[in-house]
Specification:
- The complex is a heterodimer of chains A (about 425) and B (about 80).
- Chain A has about 425 residues and is an alpha/beta fold.
- Chain A is built from 10 helices and 22 strands.
- In chain A, the strands form 4 sheets. In chain A, strands 1, 2, 3, 4, 5, 6, 7, 10, 11 and 12 form a 10-stranded mixed sheet that branches. An 8-stranded antiparallel sheet of chain A has the order 17-16-22-13-14-21-18-19.
- In chain A, strand 18 and strand 19 form a beta hairpin.
- In chain A, helix 1 runs parallel beside helix 9, helix 3 packs parallel to helix 4 and helix 9 packs antiparallel against helix 10.
- Chain A starts with a strand and ends in a 10-residue tail after the last strand.
- By secondary structure, chain B is an alpha+beta fold.
- Chain B has one domain: Alpha-Beta Plaits (2-Layer Sandwich).
- Chain B is built from 2 helices and 6 strands; from the N terminus they run E-H-E-E-E-E-H-E.
- A 4-stranded antiparallel sheet of chain B has the order 4-5-1-6. Chain B has a two-stranded antiparallel sheet with strand order 2-3.
- The two termini of chain B are about 15 Å apart.
- Classes of the chains: A alpha/beta (about 425), B alpha+beta (about 80).
- The interface between A and B is medium-sized, with 22 and 18 residues.
Chain lengths: ~425, ~80
């Protein structure tokens, strides 16, 4: 299940083969501030797009709810129901109650912090899928799945409860995201989707008596590294987990495409018995190219307590540099036309094209024509064409990928 | 006089402005976003011109708004 925080990300997820996507509508979701949220009017288009790719789509409706939110919440549930959205992801009891009344399938959000079998039994009156707390160990997850089967705990559909966990992406220092820091310092509530990420910064401690300041300079002590489970995904599947969720509705199309592709390949490899250490290495390298704060196993393997990020920036090994806009695609010749608006393009460059319909297209520049004349390099203002296997559109942007130099070697530009 | 401007579209309905300036702001039960009382709409942006006495609390509301969709400005008096 992949995150869709924008049309670009949605399209990238679907093209990368996501089995399902999740997205926010209006403001009642945990990325109300950081992602470009969809509206109720967008629902038919989203559903149609997902249907084309045989993917399911789920609405996140998982903030804390106030009285004044109830009508909007009901409007969203009704719209989800009438547009054929398969389920809503919820944590507040008001949402559970209303969605159940309307016959809308419910998934229990990780914000609910489910950590034991009886809580699952409790929620089974409402939900067919539960997202477990991110702080459980894999053996706890496995025990819960076994108990669901042993006790035959079924959801409203009459089928056994499905267990979903987070497989990849940002982890929060607070249990199941229930954090008050952002509200405390900036009146910006994390539980209303407006987290300003205090935990991702570095801090100085002051001795009040002497005024001496100590910089906590070895680590970003509250900033957890990003969860990455691709190296032990076989164990997660053995534990009986049925849905793997990728975090990142605030992330770009390239992140969504790369993470979805890697995890999809990994799951297929496990199914056909070709999952191997070499493949894991290759996926890890791929995953490192997009946004990350460094990787760790999260809490699933239960051996390392809290691995903290060493940087306030992404540790992605590649960076996107904006080149220009899409112009046209000549389908017969498989040629894409672009206008270069900034920087320069060279033959051999690794490029990506992203856009609301295109999603994410990755390619290398094998040949380049500037104003229809073969060239090695294109500069700002040039109209260029390059061979491209996939369709691009005027709504697309083109970027080149460049290796990110480490801090020590960064030139003072 | 002061002018309060509300860029309502990006409101996430956190209720902070209502807590701080309850006489000027109200939560809409229809769409869950806040409403600038006596505000006049123009292309989705609401504006209200009110007395100086309301500056302090509405300025606090503007500072507190997590999505920065409230602006409060003092109006220059014509001489």
């Amino acid at each position: 299940m992949s995150p869709a925080g924008s049309w670009e990300a949605l399209s990238a997820a679907l093209h990368a083969g996501a089995d399902s996507v999740y997205f926010g509508v209006e403001q009642l979701n945990m990325r109300a501030k950081s992602s470009n949220n969809f509206t109720v009017e967008d629902l038919p288009k989203i559903i149609a797009l997902c249907a084309q790719h045989h993917a399911k789509s789920y609405i996140t409706l998982n903030t804390i709810m106030y009285d004044h939110d109830l009508q909007l919440m009901k409007t969203i549930v009704d719209a989800a129901k009438s547009n054929g959205v398969p389920a809503v992801i919820a944590s507040d009891h008001a949402v559970l109650m209303y969605a159940k009344k309307q016959g809308m399938e419910i998934h229990i959000s990780t914000q609910t912090n489910i950590t034991n079998i009886e809580t699952i039994e409790f929620f089974s009156t409402y939900a067919d899928v539960v997202v477990l707390s991110r702080e459980l160990s894999l053996s706890q997850v496995s025990d819960i799945v076994k108990e669901i089967r042993r006790r035959n705990i079924c959801g409203p559909s009459g089928k056994l409860i499905h267990v979903e966990i987070f497989a990849h992406g940002a982890l929060c220092m607070a249990v199941s995201g229930k954090c008050y820091l952002s509200l405390h310092t900036h009146f910006s509530s994390a539980n209303r989707g407006a987290c300003i990420q205090n935990c991702r910064r570095d801090y100085i401690v002051t001795d009040k008596e002497t005024g001496y300041e100590f910089e906590i300079d070895n680590e970003y002590i509250m900033s957890a590294k990003d969860l990455c489970t691709i190296g032990f995904l076989d164990k997660i599947i053995d534990a009986g987990v049925e849905v793997l969720k990728i975090e990142g509705r605030g992330r770009s199309a390239d992140y969504v495409h790369t993470t979805t592709t890697c995890y999809k390949e990994a799951v297929l490899s496990i199914t056909d018995g070709t999952y191997s250490e070499e493949k894991v290495q290759r996926w890890m390298t791929e995953l490192s190219t997009v946004f990350n704060r460094g990787f760790w196993d999260g809490y699933y393997l239960g051996r390392t307590i809290g691995e903290w990020s060493t940087s306030d920036e992404s540790l992605a090994t590649k960076r996107k540099v904006y080149l220009g806009k899409g112009v046209n695609y000549f389908a017969k010749q498989k040629i894409g036309q672009f206008t270069i608006e900034s920087n320069q393009m060279n033959v051999g460059d690794e490029i990506v094209v992203t856009g609301p319909t295109t999603g994410y297209v990755h390619a290398f520049v094998t040949e380049l024509r500037v104003n229809d004349v073969p060239a090695q390099q294109a500069l700002k203002g040039d109209s260029i064409t390059i061979p491209l296997a996939e369709v691009i559109r005027p709504s697309d942007s083109i970027y080149k990928l460049v290796e990110v130099r480490t801090a020590n070697t960064k030139p003072s530009e | 006089m002061i002018r309060i401007i509300h860029f309502r579209e990006k409101c996430i309905g956190c209720n902070a402005c209502v807590e701080l300036a309850p006489d000027r702001w109200r939560m809409s039960k229809k769409d869950g976003k806040s409403v600038l009382l006596e505000g006049e709409e123009n292309r989705g942006i609401y504006t209200a011109v009110v007395g100086d006495d309301e500056f302090k609390i509405n300025h606090a509301a503007a500072r507190t708004c997590p999505t920065n969709v409230i602006k409060v400005e003092k109006m220059v008096r014509k001489s």
